[in-house]
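Bumping my old thread because nobody answered last time. Still need a sequence for this structure:
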């Protein structure tokens, strides 16, 4: 097991290195000149007032005139040593800004994952145990709608219906949970429900499929023939084996929800990491975008490692050489 973990960590580090090279290269070839954008911000948007000397001075101050390999190794060295650098526009420390926005994104992600898991897995089990009944058909339609309807459309419709029909709207902005728990809950309730609904649909359908496959196995019929109670058979014999593919989906949804919180943060004006990433991309803020994309990629690698390790806990037959 130790060799397996070491090998996966090594592959994860290699993946992070490749991602860092890709995002560094893509930002350099993407259209738009960050020096020109900063100069326009300084002159109030008057492009005629921008001189070539200003652009050269901005590039020199930001280190953009250095060779690309030097810029890359300087950035990677800072990431490894804990110095994430500063924003090109605001001159704020990226690490400090990241720490202040991380609780917003984590709260939204955790609430969405918990909600989707608590609703998705029981729904999938119920659909499997009540196959081809009205309960099964109703939950299948409900989950299919969650897979089909985009999150941003649901969020937009929620805001429009609240404003134009009920003359109210969800709370906008961010209040810390320790400052006002009720206000914090009201702000995160609808974003978490919308994101969790889509993730719940995937878990429910996967749980139904795997549960149907497991309960038709010979050892399940043998357990019933031995006189064990149905609840014991379902929990001790069927559920653990059926959960293995679902754990993969849950883990991937954790990674996807953390990265996919960008849309909800923009719509509900939550100042989290996703919002920070979008603003950095709009401003061509290289250090901010590079650092956040690398964090997201390493997060996905870590989640995949934890998923693989959980297999051995659910099924003793799983062994790693």
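Sorry it took so long. Here it is:
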């Amino acid at each position: 097991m130790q060799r397996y973990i070491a090998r996966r960590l090594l592959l994860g580090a290699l993946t992070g290195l490749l991602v860092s090279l890709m995002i560094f290269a893509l930002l350099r070839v993407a259209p738009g000149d960050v020096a020109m954008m900063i100069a326009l911000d300084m002159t109030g948007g008057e492009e005629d007032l921008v001189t070539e000397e200003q652009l050269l001075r901005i590039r020199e101050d930001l280190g953009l005139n250095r060779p690309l390999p030097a810029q890359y190794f300087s950035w990677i060295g800072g990431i490894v040593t804990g110095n994430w650098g500063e924003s090109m526009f605001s001159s704020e420390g990226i690490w400090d800004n990241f720490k202040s926005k991380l609780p917003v994104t984590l709260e939204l992600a955790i609430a969405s994952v918990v909600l989707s898991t608590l609703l998705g897995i029981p729904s999938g089990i119920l659909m499997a145990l009540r196959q081809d009944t009205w309960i099964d058909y109703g939950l299948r339609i409900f989950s299919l709608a969650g897979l089909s309807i985009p999150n941003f459309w649901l969020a937009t419709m929620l805001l429009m219906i609240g404003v134009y029909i009920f003359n109210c709207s969800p709370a906008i902005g961010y209040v810390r949970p320790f400052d006002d728990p009720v206000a914090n809950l009201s702000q995160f309730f609808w974003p978490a429900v919308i994101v969790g609904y889509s993730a719940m649909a995937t878990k429910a359908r996967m749980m139904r499929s795997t549960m149907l496959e497991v309960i038709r196995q010979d050892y399940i019929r043998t357990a019933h023939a031995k006189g064990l109670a149905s609840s014991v058979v379902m929990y001790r014999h069927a559920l653990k084996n059926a959960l293995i593919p679902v754990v993969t989906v849950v883990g991937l949804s954790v990674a996807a929800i953390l990265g996919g919180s960008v849309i909800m943060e923009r719509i509900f004006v939550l100042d989290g990491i996703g919002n920070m990433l979008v603003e950095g991309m709009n401003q061509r803020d290289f250090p901010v975008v590079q650092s956040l994309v690398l964090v997201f990629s390493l997060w996905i690698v870590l989640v995949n490692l934890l998923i693989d390790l959980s297999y051995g806990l659910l099924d003793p037959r799983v062994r790693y050489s």
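The chain has two domains: 32-82, 94-282. Let me know if any region looks off to you.
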